[in-house]
C-alpha cells in the first residue's frame, strides 16, 4: 500500500517531517521518524515555545528509506503503521516549491498482532512510539539522537 504525504521544506531545501502527537484522556495519535535501521535521527529544530500539548515537537530531515511510524490508540488498543520512504515528488505550484514523500507500508499492527513478524532492530523505535502516543498532553521529543 502506497501513501503520499506532504513534507515541510527546510531553509536548506531538505524534505522534513515533524515528530508530533501525544495522548488525551483515552485516545492518542503520534508520528515518529527514524533512519532505515530504526535508529534515532538528529532533529534540525526542536520547538520549546508555544502550544506544545500533543502538537509538533521536533523537525527531522528525511531521506529515502527512512522509517515513519504513524500510531494511534484507544485505551491502549494500538494501531501502528510503519512506513518506509520510497521516493520524493517535487512540484512547483503557484511559484511555491512543494515536496511530497511517497511511502510504502512496511508493516502494520492491528487487532493485537503484526501483519508480519517485526524485525528486532525496530523494537526500540516502536516502543518509543507507544510511549509518546500514551504520554498525557505530550510536550516533548521522544525519539532523537543524543546531541
Given the C-alpha coordinates, what overall shape results? globular
Alpha-carbon distance between the termini? Answer: 35 Å
Number of strands: 10
Overall SS class: mainly beta
Question: Percent of residues in helical segments?
Answer: under 10%
- How many strands, which pairing sense, and closed or not: the largest β-sheet? 10 strands, antiparallel
Count of DSSP-assigned helices: 1
C-alpha-based Rg, rounded: 15 Å
State the domain count.
Answer: 1
Order of helices and strands: EEEEEEEEEEH
Low-pLDDT regions: none
Strand portion, in percent?
Answer: over 45%
Q: What is the averaged pLDDT score?
A: 95
How are the SSEs placed, and which strands pair?
Blueprint (H helix, E strand, L loop, with lengths): L1 E5 L1 E2 L5 E9 L3 E8 L10 E2 L9 E6 L5 E8 L2 E17 L2 E15 L2 E2 L8 H11 L14
Antiparallel strand pairs: 1-9, 2-3, 3-4, 3-6, 4-7, 5-6, 7-8, 8-9, 9-10
What does this entry look like structurally?
The protein has one helix and ten strands, in the order ββββββββββα. Strands 1, 2, 3, 4, 5, 6, 7, 8, 9 and 10 form a ten-stranded antiparallel β-sheet that branches. The chain has one domain. It has one helix spanning 123-133; strands at 2-6, 8-9, 15-23, 27-34, 45-46, 56-61, 67-74, 77-93, 96-110, 113-114. By secondary structure, it is mainly beta.
Amino acid at each position: 500500500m502506497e501513501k503520499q504525504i506532504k513534507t515541510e521544506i527546510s531553509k536548506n531545501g531538505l524534505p522534513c517531517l515533524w515528530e508530533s502527537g501525544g495522548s488525551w484522556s483515552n485516545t492518542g495519535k503520534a508520528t515518529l521518524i527514524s533512519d532505515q535501521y530504526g535508529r534515532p535521527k538528529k532533529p534540525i529544530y526542536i520547538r520549546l515555545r508555544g502550544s506544545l500539548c500533543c502538537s509538533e515537537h521536533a523537525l527531522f530531515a528525511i531521506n529515502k528509506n527512512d522509517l515513519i511510524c504513524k500510531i494511534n490508540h484507544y485505551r491502549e488498543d494500538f494501531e501502528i503503521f510503519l512506513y518506509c520512504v520510497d521516493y520524493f515528488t517535487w512540484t512547483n505550484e503557484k511559484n511555491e516549491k512543494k515536496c511530497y514523500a511517497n511511502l510504502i507500508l512496511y508493516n502494520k499492527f492491528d487487532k493485537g498482532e503484526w501483519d508480519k513478524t517485526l524485525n528486532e532492530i525496530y523494537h526500540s523505535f516502536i516502543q518509543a512510539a507507544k510511549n509518546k502516543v500514551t504520554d498525557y498532553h505530550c510536550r516533548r521529543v521522544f525519539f532523537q539522537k543524543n546531541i
